[in-house]
C-alpha cells in the first residue's frame, strides 16, 4: 500500500496551495475554456491531416516557464494556464530539437514532448461492493444525502442510454482526435461502461460530468488528460474517475494530479493491466491518487492487474457485465475486463461517503474506505475442487510483464464496502460454520449461524457469495459429496458480513465384494455404485497392486483414493471414468490414456515415476507436483488450460507436445531435464519462467510442426548455457523474446528464431552452423557477433531490419541475400539502409547477390576473399572493397566512385562496369591493371610502397602512398609493425600490445598535386648485427572511426641492400654509397 499522507500534512498542503490556486483559477476560468477550444481544434486539425495520435503527440512540446519563451522554429503555439505553453511542430524531429532548446533556458521549470495515455480496458460487481445494499438502506431509512459531483475523464458517454437520464451531463469538452466536435459523446464504449457502473452503485444524488480525452481507440495525449483533470477541478468536481495509465512519467499529468489534490478533489485511478509493478506507471504510482487493482468473481487477483505497494484498493474488474452500449462497441461482447472497470466501484464508495459526510477531506475519505475493506484473507479463495478457467479465447494471448512475489502486494487494503464506509449502521458478524474443513468418510449435517435477525446466503461454487448468486440458508446442509461452502450474513439493519469458507473432501470405503481382481493383484472390474471411493488394500485376500486395462473404467467415478500398495495403472485403466480427484501415494507407473475422459483437478501421486502417452489429457488442476517423475510419453499434459505451474524436478526428457496448448502455464521447474523435444511448449502463451539448469539439447526427434516454444509470448529471456543444438522453429513467434544466451550451442537449425520481432541481444560464442532463415524477421537485433561461425544458410539474417553490425571472424562463405530485407507480401527484395558494418576476415567466397540492396554498407574489408559471384553488389552501397587475395570475380561494387583493392593474385574478372568512376588499386603490370585499362577505369599501383635503404644513417624505410577517390576525411595515418615475418591478421590496431606489436602515428606526410598522400616508416642507425633482422609493417588510415590497412611488407636491411646492389637501374652513386657503408661497418 502507498504510504498514507498524514492528515496534518494534507491539510497543510491544501491550505498552502489554496492560497495560491484559488486566485489563479478564479482569474483563469475563461482562459481554461479558451485552451480547451484551441486544443480541440488542434486535435481535430491533426486528425484531418491523417496524422495518427502517436505522431501528433511526439511533435508537440509542452513547456512550463516563468517567462514566455520565444518560439523555437516554426510551430503553432497555444498559451495554457499556470505558465504552461504548448508548441505544435510538423515533425517529431523538429519537436526534439525544440525540446533541447526549451530545456536549456534557465527560466524554464520543465519541458517535455507530449505522450499517450491509454484506457485500461481489457465486465457482476455491485453485490460484492454492496452498491444495491447501500442504496436500499438509504431509501428504507430515509437517509439525507448531499449532492456529489463526479467527473469522468475518459472516452465519453453514450448519453442516449436511458440509465443516464438525469444522472450524466455532457461537458461539451472533446479533447480527443475523434468523436463529435463540442461534445463528450462516446465512440468507444469504455467511458459509457464506467459511467454505468457508477450509476448502478449510487443513488441519484451522485451526478456525473463527462470530459472526453480518449479517442475511439482508447488513446489520449498526456496534455488532453491533464486538461480534462484541470477542467474537472475548475468545474467543481468532488471526485475524478480516471482509468488511464502510462509507463512514462509526465510532468503535465503530475502537475494536474497535484493541482486536484491541492484543491481537495479525489482522483481514483486504475492500477493498469500489464501484470507489472504499479510503481512503473503514472499516475497510478502517485500518493495523490487512490489506485485500484482488479479481482475476479471469486475474489482472486485478476490475472492482468498490476500489483505492488502503491495499490490502495481492489474491486471487481474481470468480465464485468455491460449494459446498452452495443451500438458503440462489438455487438457480441457482453462483458469487459480491466482495472478501468474496478475504478468506478471505488468512485461510488467514495461518493457515498461524501454523500453523508461532505466535509471530509481526501485522507479522511480514504481512511473510511480502508476501514470498510474486506481483507485479502477473506477475498482470495480457491477450494481446489473446482475447475476455474482464468483465461478465455479473447485473453489467452495476454502479455503479463512480471509476477507478484507475494499475495499481499496484489490486494492493497482490500475491497471497500459501500455501506460500511458510510458508517451509518453496524456490520453483521461473520457466519459460524459447525464443522471445520477436512477429509471425511461419512456424510454429516452442517449448520450455519449468524447474528439474530440476519439471513445467511451460501454458495458451493467458490464464488464470492451474495443474495443474487447464493442460496438462502433455511436449515442444516447435508454434506455427502466433496464440496466447499462460502457464506455471508445479511440483514436490513446492518451491512453484510465478511465471507467465510470451509472445504470438505468426501470419500467412502468401497466393499471388496464389488471388485474383480487377477492373480497379479490388479483390479479388472468394478460393479459397485460409489462415485467417491477409497479402494480397499486387499480384495478376497489378495493385496491390490494395480489396475488392469479398463479395470476401473466406470463413468460415474469422480474420486478414487488408492492404498499405498497400488503401484501401477495400466493402459486405459480408468479410460471412461469422469474422474476429478486421483490420490495414490504408492503409484509409480501410469500407462497410456489412463484417464482419457476425466477432468482431474487434484492429482496426488508423489511417487509417480513413469507416465505413458496421453496418460492424463486435459488435467484441470492449477499446480502440478510430480517430484519423482523421470520418464513420460508424448502429449501427457497437452491442453491443460488451467495449469499455471508445473514442478517436475526429476524428469529427464520433456517429450513432444508435452505441454502443448497449456496457454496459462507460467512457471516450469525441470531441474534434471537434459532434453526438450519439438513442440513441447507450443502455444504456452503465458510461459515465462523455465528452470532447466541441466538442459543439454533442444532435440528434434519428432518433426516440428510449430516449434518447441512456438508462440510463448511471455518469454522475454532465455539462458541455456549447456544446450549444444537448437531445433527447427524452436522459438518461432516468441514475439517478446528480448535476450537469448546459448554458451555451448554449436548448431542453430532452420527458422529457430523466426519472427522474434523484439529480440535484441544474442550470445552464441560457440555457434558454428546456422540454418536457413534462422533469424528471419528478427527486427530488433542491432549487432550480431559469432566468434566461431563457419557457415550459415540463405536468408539466415534476412529482414533483420535494425541490424547494423555483423562480426564472424571464422566465417568462410557469404550466401545469397544474407542480410537483405524481403517483403513476404509483395515478394520483393527491399533496401536495407541500417546494415553498415561487416567484419568477416576469413570469408573466401561471396555468393551471387550477397550484398544486394545493402545501401548502408559502404566499406568491406575481406582480406581472405578469393571468389565473388554474380551481382553480389546489386543495388548495394559498397564503395570500398579490400580483397588482396581475390582470384576471380563475376561482379564488383557498383556505387559511384567505388574503389577495389586487389593484388597480382587476381586472374579473372568478367564484370563489365557501366559506371567508369570505379577505381582499381592493384599491382602494376598485373591482370588488375590490364582489366582497368580494358574497361577504361582509373588504375593506382598499390606497390607505390615497399622497402628502401637510407645509406646516410644505416636506415630502413617503408614507404606508403594513399589516394582516396571518395575524398573522405582521414582521421589518422599510421603504421603497425613487429619483428620477424607476420601474418596480416596479426598486425592490426587491435593486436597492439606495445611489446611485440607496435604502433607509430605518421605525423609527417606529404600531399602531392594529384592528392596522393605519402608517408614513411623509417628505422635509422641499425647496427650491423641486426642487418638480417626482418621487420614486418603495414600502413593504416582511419576513416569514420574504422581502420583500413595496406598489405603487409616484410624486409630486412640486407634484403633491401642486396636488391639495390643487384638492380641495374639503380644509379652508381647510390651503390657506391651503400658499399662504403658496408666497408665502414
UniProtKB/TrEMBL annotation:
Keywords: Hydrolase, Protease, Serine protease, Signal
GO BP of this protein: proteolysis
Active site: residue positions: 154 (charge relay system), 190 (charge relay system), 340 (charge relay system)
Keyword Membrane: no
Family annotation (InterPro entries): Fn3_assoc_repeat, LRR_5, LRR_dom_sf, Peptidase_S8/S53_dom, Peptidase_S8/S53_dom_sf, Peptidase_S8_Ser-AS, Peptidase_S8_subtilisin-rel, Surface_bspA-like
Keyword Metal-binding belongs to the record: no
Protein name (database record): Leucine-rich repeat protein
Species, as recorded: Candidatus Eubacterium faecipullorum
